[in-house]
Model the fold of this input.
Amino acid sequence: MTADFLLVSDDKYVKNLGICTYSVMHNMCPEVYKVRLFVMDCGIAEENKQRLHAQAAKFGNAEMIFYDIDEKLNGVMPKVKTRWHRAIYGRLFLNELPAQYEGMDRLVYLDCDLLMDRPVTELFTMDLQGKCLAAVTDADNSPRKKVLGIPEECDYINSGVLVIDTARWIELDASRRIIEYINSFPEALLYPDQDAINYVLGHEIVILPPEYNMMWMLCERDIPKMVSSIPDFYYTADQLKYALFNPCIVHFAGHDMWSFDGITPIAAGVFKKYRALCDWRDEKRKFKSASIFFVWCAKSVKRAIYGDYKKANSGK
Done:
């Protein structure tokens, strides 16, 4: 089996790309014949590309393939004004990849601010029921559906991890329709690409268990209280607790994992594990302010009391 992954980055987020792709190769390379990491390049420096190639070469059966979309991205930039970086739209160019590479009928898209901690070979063989995507629902499920006018029978998913049937994506002309929607309703979009994917492909989504996109915020929540307080929340407390202690993919959800601020013991333990292994292990932590540094210190104390990742993982 060849496992194909899609990621997007520019030079600013290359260290995230480095640690993320390392975690993927560390877990997937022993399980499959080949791992192909397709990177939508929004302006990655050549020296960093070579560094990423060198890291992949250590695994023997992994390949990094860069696809320059910098100019193309400028040509279709949505009108929406947002705090999010333009790289969020990079995944929408996936329709240009299958024509160049044979056998790519299934892609797993990953945000760069996440880490894989278990093999996910099942995502490449799961039954998508003739639909386009599989993903984990978002905690904003009910509110975002109401704002966007998404039908009640659909669910609002987090787009950080997407299992994609590439043929179905192309058949639905999904890339064009999503960009068109973003530009038609820019004022309504809180998470432009994610909102548009949900609206355009609402009936084309299969829901994954939460361990495939375990967002770090769950670690700090009272899970039963959270489930009871969120209208129409898709998962049960037991499902979330299982995901918390058995994550396949930990998602830092826009958080700077390199500063540790606000990150809980389990998520911090996963980051610490792959930081020590990847080629960006010497990257220095950077804190935006003294208050963030003190938050990190407090979290470090909590992590020491709570135990490391392995200890936390055994306390199901």
